[in-house]
Amino acid sequence: MPDAVVIVGRTGRIVEANARAEGLFGHRREHLLGSPLDMLIPAATRHDHARHLQSYFAAPHSRPMGTSLHITGLRKGGKEFPADVSLSPLETDEGIYAIAAIRDMTDRQRLERQFYHAQRLTAAGRLLAGVAHDFNNHLTGMMGFAEVALRALPAESAARTDLEELRRCARQLADISRQLLSFAGNRPAEPVCLNLNDSIRNIERLLRRFIGQGLRLEINLSPDLAPVRIDPAQIEQVLANLVINARDAMPGGGTIRIDTSNDPAGAGEVTVSIIDAGVGMTDEVKARVFEPFFSTKEKGRGSGLGLATCRDIVERHQGRIEIETTPGEGTTVRIRLPRATGAGDSGSQRLLHPQSLVGAETLLMVDDHAVLLNVFSRALSDLGYTVRTAPNPEEAMSIARNHAGDIHLLITDVVMPQTDGVALADAIKRIRPAIKILFMSGDVDAIFGPFRVTAKEPPADAPLLPKPFRPEDMARKIREVLDR
Ligand SMILES: Nc1ncnc2c1ncn2[C@@H]1O[C@H](COP(=O)(O)OP(=O)(O)OP(=O)(O)O)[C@@H](O)[C@H]1O
Ligand SMILES: [Mg+2]
């Protein structure tokens, strides 16, 4: 958009104005010409402005945009707006004039504010991931100890119920922490074949937490839902965004519904609908909701990135997102994803065939959390394994050099103070080329992608056990890696 231009004489009267100046200030040109420049400036700053103009005419010079002449402009009707002004002298037979080019900075300031807000959300996500990382280490310890203690107690012990309760609490906390972490995480998208019902159940607890007390969440899952192919963390992000929008649309309470269904027309699509009975949207709002930074929420509440992100994610998975809304009645947002075809890689199918968890191999386990080494080496020894443990990479190296027999598997934490687990695995492989590797980590972000703290990423197919996990999760993963 061109700048508004106003030409002013020494006396501070306007002698010329372009069409954009008419538009920006809301005055007709006839009205501007001959009027004092003061009419375009709020009363509070008029005095300063007059001084400015005087000194400008005393020593006229060019003054480009963005060199600190930020002023406040005044529109007809009293509305003020931030503006940037450049000045240049114009010499004529009648004397000297100043050409002022005025640029409306409203949009620019708003964008800057929103940009900072979006940045802060990203930073908050990073912080959260760090906290969840510590959290997961302690939770893994709690679940492990409860397990080992339960196994040691006689069946009739009264303490069993207490310990079982403790274990249940720890698992729930681990669930929440895993959801937070995957939500805050910035890992590369990894589409897998999944059932959207599972995604919804996974994030249900987090959603209930988000929506709080005043609202009900009703979930109707189609029992024979077809699978789709999508990144699990991203679809959860979409669901969370849509449910938060629904919550914000119902300040007076009510019910949010999530439905899943197969497309009855047999078009090969799976649909998730998020249905609210909230304020709805006008046509003007509806037309703009997918624009990044478009938000009707008060300052600091919405960044306007929610639906833009949702659409981006859904479309990158060959899906569509549709909105049906009536002001005062409510909104339905539908996500349609193509049903996954072919064999796929359904992770849940493997769980249907639980393998034996026992083993006789020798394991070397490295973690800087002594608690975890303690509890897992006990659990794994119970299953028949020989377990050597090391609280840091140096000791692990020394065991790798000096251990008399085979070591079949190295199980190592990835993020450790001195050497990271990926580097340690490389070093041990040089001494024992046949050793298999299993990584464990409380923060997948720390291993993959732009924020990783390791010197290099582990190989893409390296087995990884995300913390927190239960002893049986670890035992199952160990068998899987050893039997590969
Ligand atoms: N379920 C809904 N009911 C009514 N209006 C909605 C609904 N969902 C979105 N909107 C409107 O669309 C706008 C944009 O939504 P979007 O999720 O992109 O941003 P936001 O919710 O304002 O901010 P953010 O999601 O980034 O915190 C909202 O400000 C609101 O006006
Ligand atoms: Mg939103």
What does this structure look like?
With 484 residues, this protein is α/β, with parallel strands linked by helices. The chain has 3 domains: 101 residues, PAS domain (Beta-Lactamase), CATH 3.30.450.20; 161 residues, Histidine kinase-like ATPase, C-terminal domain (Heat Shock Protein 90), CATH 3.30.565; 131 residues, Rossmann fold, CATH 3.40.50. The protein is 42% helix and 22% strand. A 5-stranded antiparallel sheet has the order 2-1-5-4-3. A 5-stranded mixed sheet has the order 7-9-10-12-11. Strands 14-13-15-16-17 form a 5-stranded parallel sheet, sandwiched between helices. About 2% of the residues have low confidence.
Number of domains: 3
Average pLDDT reading: 85
Q: Give the strand content.
A: 15-25%
Question: Main sheet: which strands, in order across?
Answer: 2-1-5-4-3
Query: Strand pairing plus helix content: what structural class?
Result: alpha/beta
CATH third-level topology of the largest domain = Heat Shock Protein 90
Radius of gyration: 32 Å
* Name given to the CATH homologous superfamily of the largest domain: Histidine kinase-like ATPase, C-terminal domain
Topology:
Layout: E1 4-8, E2 14-17, H1 19-25, H2 29-32, H3 43-58, E3 70-74, E4 80-92, E5 95-104, H4 106-152, H5 159-184, E6 192-194, H6 196-211, E7 215-220, E8 228-230, H7 232-248, E9 254-262, E10 269-276, H8 283-288, H9 306-316, E11 320-326, E12 330-338, H10 347-351, E13 362-366, H11 370-382, E14 386-390, H12 393-402, E15 409-413, H13 421-431, E16 436-441, E17 464-466, H14 471-482
Bound molecules: adenosine-5'-triphosphate and magnesium ion.
